[in-house]
Amino acid sequence: MEEYLLEVEIDGSKDTIKTFARSVEYAVDNIVKLDSVDRLFNIINLDTQESWEFNEDIKVLRDLRNKMPSNVEMFFGVQ
Q1: Within 13 A of 64's CA, how many CA atoms are on the CB side?
Q2: pTM of the model
Q3: For 43-65, what is the mean pLDDT?
Q4: Quick one: average pLDDT of 45-58?
Q5: Segment 44-54 mean pLDDT
Q6: What's the pLDDT at 75?
Q7: Degrees (nearest 5) of the Cα angle 24, 17, 64?
Q8: Of 15, 19, 42, 16, nearest to 30 (Cα)?
Q9: Is pLDDT larger for residue 76 or for residue 71?
Q10: How far apart are CA 35 and CA 8, in angstroms?
Q11: What stretches of 1-79 show up as alpha helix (H) in DSSP?
């Protein structure tokens, strides 16, 4: 497991959330599952210091994720 910091928007305010995940893709999936998060701005892998910048409304991803069975493994790449 790796440790990630994610800059997000919750209720109109920027905030930072920490999550643990096997990859950055799973870190994104963890945030998508949180109904309180509206936007994703940045992800930093605290172990490697690698970072990814976003400015995305994640509601569409959440709607798609909610249509999938909970036991589905997510396989996608963040570049």
Answers
A1: 8
A2: 0.81
A3: 92
A4: 94
A5: 96
A6: 57
A7: 55
A8: 19
A9: 71
A10: 12
A11: 24-32, 59-66
What residue has token string 């605290």?
46
Q: Locate the DSSP E strands across the chain.
A: 2-10, 13-21, 37-45, 51-57
Q: Collapsing DSSP states into helix, strand and coil, what is residue 62?
A: helix
Report which residue type is found at 31. Answer: I
Predicted local confidence at residue 64, as pLDDT: 85
Q: Among 43, 46, 47, which Cα is nearest to 78's?
A: 43
The answer to whether residues 53 and 24 touch, using CB atoms and an 8 Å cutoff, is: no
Count, residues in the chain: 79
Geometric angle at alpha carbon 46, from 44 and 5, rounded to 5°: 45
The phi-psi region of residue 12 (left if phi > 0; otherwise alpha if psi is between -120 and 50; otherwise beta) is: left
Residue 78 is predicted with a pLDDT of 59
Are 4 and 19 in contact by the 8 Å Cβ rule? The answer is yes
